[in-house]
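Sequence, please.
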C-alpha cells in the first residue's frame, strides 16, 4: 500500500511539472500566431481562399476590385457597396455594414482588422483604411490560421484544467508530500491540507526537516523507512510514519509520508498476543506439538516432553513426525500395531485425500500412565498433536462404575421395583422388574424421561381415571425435604410411592407386582376378617409415615363370608390412602370393622398429635372421590367426620359380600 501511494505521489508531481510546461508552450504558440504579420502577397491558385488578399475600394456607393483576387471574390469588377457583404458571402451582413460606417466616421478612432465568418464556413480577415470619403478594404482568407489559433486555445485550456486538477489532487491527498532542495530546504509541500486532517503543523514540520540519506558525494538515493517522532498526545509517547524519498533529475528530492501508527499498534498487539499465547502453552498441562506441512516439529510445550518422556533439547532440533514416532516406538510409548508402517503413514498423511482427517487413541505408557492422543490437520497442511493425561479420569470412572454397580446390587437385593429420577425427569436407575414391565407393555426399553413412563402406566393400569402426571412432575422437579412422600395408587394391589432423596432426586417404589399384576377375583369363600388382614398386609407401605393402631375387627365381621374380596380391597385401600395423605408424620390411625344388622360398617379415625384437626378436610381428595364411586355403585354411603380428629365411615349392604349372580363388579382403577 505504501509503495502504491508513493508511486501515485510521484506521478502527481511529475504530471504537475509537465502540465505547467505544456501550458507555457501553448500560450507562447498562441501569442506568436496572433502577433505574426499578415501575408500581403502570397500565391494561391484558388484566388481568395486563404493565400493572397483582395483589395477593394469603396467610393460613391460602389465597390471596385483593384486586383484579380478581388475580382474573383466579387465575381465581377465592381458591385454596389450595399451588395458587397452578399458578394463576399458574409454571414453577418449588418455587422459588416456597421464596420464600414464606423471606419469612415471621422469622430471614431480607426478600426483595426476584424474577422467575419462566411456562409461557406470560411473566415475572412478584413481591414478598412479610410481615405477621405473612400475606404480601401484588404480582405484575407484566414480560415486555416483561425483554426490553428482556436485549437491552440482549446489545448491551452485543457492543459490549464489538467494542471488545476493535479494541483488540487496534490493539495488534498491524505499523504504528506514535500519537495526538498539540494540543501535540504522544503520548497513545496501540502502541509496545510494535511494539517486539516488533525495533525499538528509542528509535528509535520519536524517530519519534513528530517534529512534524507545521501552518499559521500552528496547524491540522494531513493529509500523507504519507518520513522518515529516524540508526541506527548499519543499513549506510547511516539507517533510513526512510513517515509519514502525519491530523488529527481534536478538533485531535488520528492518525499512522501504515510501515517503508520495503526500498523505499528497492530504489530505490537500481535507481538503481545504471541508472547501471551506462548506463555500460556508453556504452562498448559496438556501436551501440544505443531508440525508444519513437511511434518517437521515447529512448536511444542514442556508438557509434551514431560508426558512422552522426550528430551526437550532433542525436540528443539525440530525432528520430523516420523522420527518422533520411531523414537516413541523404541520406548514402547505407543500401542503395539500389527502393521506399524501403515499406521505411521496414515498419521503422517493425516488430512490428505484418501486418508482420515482425525486421529484419536489412548496410549498406555510403561509407567502405567494412560494418555489420550488427538491429532488434527490444519487447512494449510500443518498438523496439531494434543496429548492429555487421563489416568486420574479413568480411575475416577472405574470407582464410579464400581459404586454404581454396588448401588444397583443393593437396590435389587429385595426385588422391589424401584426407579430413581433426576429433577429434570431423567431416569437414572430402573429395577429389572420395571424394565420388564416397560418391555412387556410397549416392547421398548424404559423411556429416558419419567413423564413418558407415567403415560405408559396410564395405558397399562388406569382405566376410568388417570394419573395426575402434572402433580407428579412438579413433585419430581422441585427440591423438597428428604423423605417427603407422594402416593399414587395404580390399582387395588399396585401403588407407586414417590420419595425425595438427598440432592433433589426422587425414588419411585412400586408396591405390588408390575409384570404379573393379575389377582384372583375371589378368595375362595374366605372370611371378611381374613380378607381385611390381607389388605392391611399388602398395603403396609402406607404406614411408613403414619402409625397404624391394631385394627378393631369384631367377631360378627370376621364370621362373615367374603365373596367380593376385590371390592373389600378397593374400599379399604382408598380409606387408608386418604388418611395417610392428610396425616403423614402427624398422628395415629385406627381402623375398625363391624356388622350392624344387614350392613357392614368400616371406619377409620385419625388422631393427630397437633391441634389442627378442625382445619383438615377430606373432601376433594382423589381417593375419597373414588371411594364414593365404588360405594355408591353398591348402594352404600360414605360419611366424613372431624370430631376427635379426621374420620371416615363406610356403610355397605351386607349383600355386597355375598354372591350375587346379577351383580356387575365395576372395574375402576385408582389413580392419584
Amino acid at each position: 500500500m505504501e509503495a502504491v501511494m508513493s508511486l501515485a505521489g510521484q506521478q502527481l508531481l511529475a504530471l504537475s511539472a509537465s502540465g505547467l510546461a505544456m501550458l507555457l508552450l501553448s500560450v507562447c504558440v498562441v501569442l506568436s500566431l496572433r502577433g505574426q504579420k499578415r501575408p500581403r502577397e502570397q500565391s494561391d491558385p484558388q484566388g481568395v481562399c486563404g493565400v493572397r488578399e483582395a483589395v477593394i475600394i469603396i467610393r460613391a456607393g460602389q465597390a471596385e476590385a483593384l486586383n484579380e483576387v478581388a475580382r474573383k471574390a466579387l465575381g465581377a469588377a465592381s458591385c454596389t457597396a450595399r451588395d458587397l457583404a452578399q458578394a463576399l458571402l458574409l454571414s453577418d451582413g449588418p455587422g459588416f455594414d456597421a464596420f464600414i460606417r464606423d471606419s469612415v466616421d471621422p469622430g471614431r478612432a480607426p478600426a483595426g482588422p476584424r474577422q467575419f465568418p462566411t456562409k461557406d464556413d470560411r473566415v475572412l480577415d478584413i481591414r478598412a483604411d479610410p481615405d477621405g470619403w473612400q475606404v480601401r478594404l484588404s480582405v484575407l482568407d484566414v480560415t486555416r490560421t483561425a483554426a490553428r489559433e482556436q485549437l491552440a486555445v482549446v489545448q491551452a485550456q485543457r492543459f490549464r484544467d489538467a494542471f488545476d486538477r493535479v494541483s488540487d489532487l496534490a493539495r488534498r491527498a491524505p499523504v504528506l508530500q514535500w519537495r526538498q532542495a539540494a540543501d535540504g530546504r522544503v520548497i513545496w509541500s501540502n502541509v496545510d491540507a494535511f494539517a486539516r486532517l488533525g495533525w499538528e503543523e509542528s509535528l509535520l514540520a519536524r517530519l519534513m526537516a528530517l534529512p534524507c540519506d545521501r552518499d559521500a558525494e552528496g547524491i540522494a538515493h531513493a529509500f523507504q523507512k519507518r520513522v518515529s517522532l516524540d508526541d506527548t498526545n499519543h499513549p506510547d509517547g511516539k507517533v510513526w510514519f512510513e517515509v519514502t524519498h525519491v530523488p529527481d533529475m534536478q538533485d531535488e528530492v520528492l518525499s512522501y509520508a504515510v501515517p503508520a501508527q495503526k500498523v505499528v499498534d497492530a504489530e505490537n498487539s500481535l507481538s503481545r498476543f504471541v508472547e501471551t499465547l506462548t506463555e500460556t502453552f508453556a504452562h498448559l498441562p496438556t501436551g501440544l506439538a505443531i508440525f508444519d506441512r513437511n511434518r517437521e516439529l515447529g512448536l511444542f510445550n514442556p508438557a509434551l516432553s514431560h508426558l512422552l518422556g522426550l528430551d526437550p533439547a532433542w525436540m528443539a532440533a525440530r525432528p520430523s513426525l516420523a522420527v518422533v514416532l520411531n523414537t516413541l516406538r523404541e520406548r514402547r510409548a505407543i500401542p503395539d500395531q500389527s502393521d506399524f508402517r501403515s499406521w505411521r503413514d496414515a498419521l503422517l498423511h493425516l488430512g490428505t485425500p484418501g486418508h482420515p482427517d482425525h486421529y484419536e487413541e489412548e496410549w498406555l505408557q510403561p509407567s502405567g500412565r494412560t494418555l489420550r492422543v488427538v491429532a488434527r490437520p490444519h487447512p494449510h497442511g500443518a498438523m496439531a498433536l494434543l496429548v492429555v493425561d487421563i489416568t486420574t479420569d479413568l480411575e475416577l470412572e472405574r470407582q464410579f462404575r464400581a459404586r454404581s454397580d454396588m448401588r444397583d446390587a443393593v437396590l435389587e437385593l429385595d426385588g422391589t421395583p424401584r426407579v430413581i429420577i433426576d429433577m429434570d425427569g431423567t431416569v437414572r436407575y430402573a429395577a429389572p422388574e420395571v424394565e420388564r414391565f416397560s418391555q412387556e407393555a410397549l416392547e421398548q426399553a424404559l423411556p429416558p424421561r419419567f413423564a413418558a413412563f407415567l403415560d405408559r402406566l396410564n395405558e397399562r393400569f388406569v382405566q376410568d381415571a388417570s394419573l395426575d402426571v402434572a402433580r407428579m412432575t412438579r413433585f419430581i422437579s422441585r427440591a423438597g425435604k428428604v423423605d417427603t412422600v407422594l402416593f399414587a395408587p395404580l390399582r387395588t394391589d399396585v401403588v407407586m410411592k414417590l420419595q425425595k432423596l438427598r440432592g433433589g432426586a426422587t425414588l419411585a417404589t412400586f408396591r405390588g407386582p408390575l409384570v404379573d399384576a393379575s389377582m384372583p377375583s375371589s378368595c375362595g369363600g374366605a372370611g371378611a376378617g381374613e380378607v381385611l388382614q390381607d389388605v392391611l398386609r399388602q398395603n403396609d407401605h402406607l404406614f411408613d409415615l403414619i402409625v397404624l393402631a391394631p385394627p378393631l375387627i369384631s367377631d360378627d365381621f370376621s364370621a362373615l363370608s367374603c365373596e367380593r374380596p376385590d371390592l373389600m380391597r378397593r374400599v379399604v385401600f382408598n380409606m387408608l390412602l386418604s388418611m395417610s395423605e392428610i396425616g403423614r408424620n402427624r398422628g395415629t390411625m385406627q381402623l375398625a370393622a363391624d356388622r350392624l344388622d344387614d350392613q357392614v360398617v368400616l371406619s377409620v379415625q385419625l388422631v393427630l398429635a397437633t391441634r389442627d384437626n378442625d382445619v383438615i378436610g377430606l373432601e376433594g381428595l382423589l381417593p375419597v372421590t373414588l371411594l364414593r364411586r365404588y360405594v355408591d355403585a353398591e348402594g352404600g354411603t360414605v360419611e366424613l367426620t372431624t370430631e376427635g380428629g379426621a374420620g371416615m365411615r363406610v356403610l355397605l349392604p351386607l349383600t355386597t359380600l355375598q354372591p350375587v349372580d346379577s351383580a356387575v363388579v365395576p372395574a375402576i382403577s385408582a389413580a392419584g
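Residues 1-51, 517-524, 611-615, 660-672 have pLDDT under 50 and may be disordered.
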